[in-house]
Specification:
This protein has about 180 residues and is of the alpha/beta class. The chain is about 55% helix and about 15% strand. Helix 1 packs across helix 9.
Length: about 180
């Protein structure tokens, strides 16, 4: 039974949780268009996320993130990967919640560190002396917000394909 076929589906979670990798797989499985807010920001500014943070600052990045969310929420039937820090902004959270279903890809700090340890495109981690400590601190702050999602998927130690399948199986009850 399809309850809300036009609702967007938003993948939320910490950096490295798999949103941008799982998103296209799930979108294809569900026959939905895929939108990645981080990719939109990169295309819109012509800069990488580390360049934006270095040249324009985090506040500018968050403004662009808010703009991307405002745009995508006007569409229907989309599968959207939302940047890890976007939902910390309560206005973003409310905008997303009104227009779709939130799916939290939950990973523990060690799993995240393992996934992003060689990724130099993580400005919030680039200056950290202890990346695990920084991840743990940010995750502790953000987890209570992420956990308000409609669906929580344990994404630890799973392939992107298995994560997409787990989401697909759970989401059938909602959309």
């Amino acid at each position: 039974m399809i309850k809300h076929p036009q609702k967007n589906i938003y993948l939320i979670g910490f950096m490295g949780s798999g949103k941008s990798t799982v998103g296209p797989l799930l979108a294809k499985k569900m026959n939905r268009a895929f939108f990645d807010t981080d990719e939109w920001i990169i295309n819109e500014t012509g800069k990488t996320i580390p360049e934006i943070f270095a040249e324009d600052g985090e506040q500018f990045f968050r403004e662009k993130e808010r703009e991307a969310i405002q745009i995508v929420c006007k569409f229907k039937n989309m599968l959207v990967s939302v940047g890890g820090g976007a939902v910390v902004d309560s206005s973003n959270w409310l905008t997303l919640k009104k227009s779709g279903l939130m799916v939290y890809l939950q990973c523990d700090a060690n799993e995240i560190l393992n996934r992003v340890k060689n990724d130099l495109n993580r400005p919030l981690l680039s200056q950290a002396e202890d990346r695990l400590e920084k991840i743990t601190s940010l995750l502790t702050q953000r987890a209570p917000i992420y956990e308000k999602a409609d669906i929580i998927i344990d994404a630890n130690n799973l392939t992107p394909e298995l994560i997409a399948e787990k989401i697909y199986q759970k989401i059938k009850d909602f959309v």
